[in-house]
From TrEMBL:
Metal-binding found in the keyword field: no
Residue ranges occupied by any Flavodoxin-like fold domain in the UniProt entry: 3-199
Signal sequence interval, chain numbering: none
Keywords for the protein's UniProt record, in alphabetical order: Flavoprotein, FMN, NAD, Oxidoreductase
GO molecular function, one term: electron transfer activity
Cofactor binding: number and manner: Binds 1 FMN per subunit.
Reaction catalyzed: 2 a quinone + NADH + H(+) = 2 a 1,4-benzosemiquinone + NAD(+); N,N-dimethyl-1,4-phenylenediamine + anthranilate + 2 NAD(+) = 2-(4-dimethylaminophenyl)diazenylbenzoate + 2 NADH + 2 H(+)
Protein name: FMN dependent NADH:quinone oxidoreductase
Pfam families recorded: Flavodoxin_2 (PF02525)
Cofactor(s) named in the record: FMN
Coiled coil: none
InterPro entries listed in its UniProt record: Flavodoxin_fold, Flavoprotein-like_sf, FMN-dep_NADH:Q_OxRdtase_AzoR1, NADH:quinone_OxRdtase_FMN_depd
EC numbers for this chain: 1.6.5.-, 1.7.1.17
Length: 206
């Protein structure tokens, strides 16, 4: 694995707990090239009504507004950029049981028919197949797998479902929970997540 993309979905910068654990993991993975995509600091292409209608106009060969052409150039560039990496680490805080809106916008930009997946009579083919994803998921509540309330984790479940749809089935996860509680409880959660990240890096490097 040579090129690693870190998609950071928390707007909390240096204070982000999911980022802290992701950075530790990435350092241990020792990729040749690492790029960070800080979604809070990135102007993503607009995926609005004009871009959606323009998609059908482009597919059917009709003339489109230059602004729509520019939006699609941006969308195609974002998909090509994503697909140029062979390992993607996502740091994802839970927001209202799902993922933060900027990450959802990024996913909506990337998930284009013909660019990220194709559909034919045989079904869906994900065009990102062969890549590896690592999810570093944080949350205030301790709803790790096996804990009461784990069924409320639409954040990890959604990320796994989306990755599978675009063809990424080699998916690993590190859970950073609970990040709300007494200082001792939060410190224990961070220590547990760092240890999980270290174990995962050792397993993937081995
Ligand atoms: C808008 C918003 C919504 C949140 N919703 C949830 C939630 O549904 N469940 C939860 O466990 N924590 C929730 N949290 C808490 C964050 O997931 C938690 O603070 C996490 O550690 C943030 O990760 P970060 O430090 O990487 O940004 C929410 C935080 C924010 C700002």
């Amino acid at each position: 694995m040579s090129r690693l993309l870190h998609v950071s979905a928390s707007p909390r910068g240096e204070r982000s707990r999911s980022d802290k654990v992701a950075r530790r993991l990435i350092a241990a993975l020792g990729a040749a090239e690492v790029e960070t995509l800080d979604l809070a600091a990135t102007a993503l292409p607009a995926f609005d009504g004009a871009a959606i209608e323009g998609r059908y106009d482009l597919i059917e060969g009709r003339a489109v507004d230059p602004a729509v052409l520019a939006a699609w150039d941006g969308i195609r560039a974002a998909v090509a950029h994503f697909l140029s990496f062979d390992r993607i680490v996502f740091s994802v805080p839970m927001w209202n049981f799902g993922v933060p809106w900027r990450l959802k916008q990024y996913i909506d930009v990337l998930t284009q028919p013909g660019l990220a997946f194709t559909v034919d009579a045989a079904g869906v083919t994900g065009l990102a197949a062969g890549r590896q994803a690592i999810l570093v998921c944080s949350g205030a509540l301790d709803i790790r797998p096996g804990q009461p309330g784990a069924e409320l984790d639409f954040q990890t479940a959604y990320m796994r479902a989306w990755l599978g749809f675009i063809g990424i089935t080699d998916v690993h996860e590190v859970q950073v929970r609970p990040t709300y509680g007494s200082p001792a409880e939060v410190e224990a959660a961070m220590d547990r997540a760092y240890a999980e990240a270290d174990r995962l890096a050792a397993a993937l490097n081995g």
